[in-house]
Amino acid sequence: MPLAINETVSIDDDLLQERFVRSSGPGGQNVNKVSTAVELRFDLANWTEIFPRARARLSKLAGSRLTDDGVIIIKAERFRTQERNRADARERLLEMIREALVEPKRRIATRPSRAAKERRLKAKTHRSGVKQMRQRKPDMG
User: Comparing 63 with 140, which gets the higher pLDDT?
Assistant: First the structure.
């Protein structure tokens, strides 16, 4: 069953690999015996449903979790059970992909108004005056 991101985009199961490894952190003796941490591997390089600009944003968001082969690795070990860690890893991957799918708004360059420039200069002059008053020594005469 493919992993649905939104109404139009989904990830095929053959692009996802899960490996259960031993977890660090809380769990007592159980942590030494049971592999509860999940290492989720997502093959971004072979995912064809994503458009190039979103792929570039996702690569940037993944950062050090992206390997040279184009695989995103997410390790989830927050919880003590495999099921909860598995769901956590998948949810973190989905959030990362959803964030990458949102096209950022282009910034429109603007210039400050004349009134804004005047306010800025007036504030600088006032601050300068305050500092000059602090430097003056009272007349001794």
Answer: 63
Q: Which residue bears the tokens 């598995």?
A: 86
138 inside domain: no
The structure tokens 């429109």 sit at 108
- Looking at the structure of the chain, the number of domains it has is 1
Judge whether 65 and 73 are in contact, CB under 8 Å.
Answer: yes
Asked if the structure places residue 30 within a domain, the reply is yes
Q: Rounded CA gap, 24 and 36, in Å?
A: 9
5/21 Cα distance (integer angstroms) = 26
- Asked if the structure places residue 67 within a domain, the reply is yes
Using the structure block, give the residue that is written with the tokens 């809380």: 26
pTM here is 0.67
Pair 88, 104: CB distance under 8 Å: no
